[in-house]
Amino acid sequence: MFTGIIESLGTIRRIETQGEGKILVIACDLDLTGTGIGDSIAVNGACLTAVSLGKGQFKVDMAPETVSRTTFDSLGPGARVNIERALKLSDRIDGHLVSGHIDGTGVVSKIETRSNAIIYDIQVPENLACEMIEKGSVAIDGISLTINQCWENGFSVSIIPHTAKITTIGFKNVGDRVNIETDMLGKYVKKFLSGQGKGAKSANDAGADADLDISMSFLARNGFL
């Protein structure tokens, strides 16, 4: 689990291809003395497992599923990446809860400077856009951000100069792809309200055929609305 608060910018030193998977060697300036082999590290928002650690660098394996859902299929040696180590239970959550499981990719469609902010419009598939709400949370390349506006195939975020300086978002141009993780709570709500939660049996109805139908009327009857 992560927070979306980027700790360091890393650089991909080497990429090895293993069939449809990849092995990445990443250099960073983080103190990794407290990190062990098998620990989770988010790279551009993707939760990856450290399989080797060295001075100023680490190595991660990337499964074919991760490659297919992220922008790593187009990154090469020298590419800058956002780095965040896994959340400790004693830490403050300054961003939002980020799982590190990328839902898909988006494309920067517009960049506009407005006073001291940089506004990024991001185009995404409709199945991702429908999981977003205005003033909700989203992770772009692992960066925890607040959604300004959203529409059927995209959304916008406002970036302050500090965020642009210390993360990869400041390097992005129109047409660049980014990793997207939508808010995990929204995914569960969407599944229940869409009826995909049907089929679960009540623990008190062992052997009964009645399904639990989670709907707006059900939530209202039980005091949730």
Automatic annotation (TrEMBL):
Keywords: Repeat, Riboflavin biosynthesis, Transferase. It comes from Desulfobacter postgatei 2ac9. Pfam families: Lum_binding. It comes from the Bacteria. GO terms for molecular function: riboflavin synthase activity. Gene3D superfamilies: 2.40.30.20. The lineage of its organism: Bacteria, Pseudomonadati, Thermodesulfobacteriota, Desulfobacteria, Desulfobacterales. NCBIfam families: PRK09289.1, ribE. The keyword Lipid biosynthesis does not apply. Lumazine-binding repeats lie at residues 1-96, 97-193. Catalyzes the dismutation of two molecules of 6,7-dimethyl-8-ribityllumazine, resulting in the formation of riboflavin and 5-amino-6-(D-ribitylamino)uracil. The keyword Repeat applies. It catalyses: 2 6,7-dimethyl-8-(1-D-ribityl)lumazine + H(+) = 5-amino-6-(D-ribitylamino)uracil + riboflavin. Residues 1-96, 97-193 form the Lumazine-binding domain. Homotrimer. This is Riboflavin synthase. GO terms for biological process: riboflavin biosynthetic process. It is an enzyme of class 2 (transferase). Its EC number is 2.5.1.9. InterPro entries: ATP_synth_asu-like_sf, Lumazine-bd, Lumazine-bd_dom, Riboflavin_synthase-like_b-brl. Pathway: Cofactor biosynthesis; riboflavin biosynthesis; riboflavin from 2-hydroxy-3-oxobutyl phosphate and 5-amino-6-(D-ribitylamino)uracil: step 2/2.
